Amino acid sequence: MLLYFIDIGLIEFAANLVVLAVIIGNTEVRAFYRQYLNAENRNDVEAMNLLQSELSEQGFATNVQATTNTSDSAPENAEQEVAQTEATDELADTVTIAPEPKPLSESLIWCNFKYYAAPIFYFVIFGLPGIVFYATALYLFESKSLKNRLPDNVISTLKAWNEWMFWLPARFVSVGFMFVGHFSNGLESYLKLAANFSVPAYQMITEVAHAAEGGHPQSNEKNMVKLAKRNMALFVVVVALLTLYGYIV
């Protein structure tokens, strides 16, 4: 009987808000960036470098395995060579080398895309199932605990899924950079990359953003954050207008 007195549409709206609040954003990225700004204010270069690495790892998370020799001397016999090889293989499964940190501006613009723009895109186009699918696929690929248990072929499949999942929203979000930044510079980069299926989504996002921000390969991170905020504001305005005119139900 309670359902007769409660608007079902209101319940759906409330459920959507809860899901969006849980999925959109990343608390670690926000915390790292606030700490970076604090370190910058007190000229703590060591902390800034460390936090830049953390933000780069968060945005471009990859584990690079490397083999390490257990001994500098050559094995004396075949049995020792086999034992050393097995020990080296076992060590290679556990030792990882951190990738070279990306520029902070690229890490921030990519994190903004992954955790804000892309999920909103999937919610607008596919509704609640779309954003839940996106968040699930992203979690499966980025979860370090799962990566340690999953075989390499499954991880490669997840990586391919995520790249295809990023492909379309990256093209749409990059269009926004052109309108809120330098249009002609952004358009030139966009036309070079948009139709190329082999171009990774992060390259599409970062290069168009750099061009739209002014064409500098190492753009200031604060300017890139402002660019991302203007783009998100444009995105929200466009969605609101489409909703008002009935193009989005």
From TrEMBL:
Protein name (record): Regulatory signaling modulator protein AmpE
One Pfam family recorded for the sequence: AmpE
Superkingdom, natural source: Bacteria
PANTHER family on file: PROTEIN AMPE
UniProt key word Transcription: no
Sequence intervals crossing the membrane: 6-25, 120-141, 164-183, 232-248
InterPro entries given in the database record: AmpE, Beta-lactamase_Reg
Upper taxonomic lineage: Bacteria, Pseudomonadati, Pseudomonadota, Gammaproteobacteria, Alteromonadales
Keywords annotated in UniProt: Membrane, Transmembrane, Transmembrane helix
Gene name in the database record: ampE
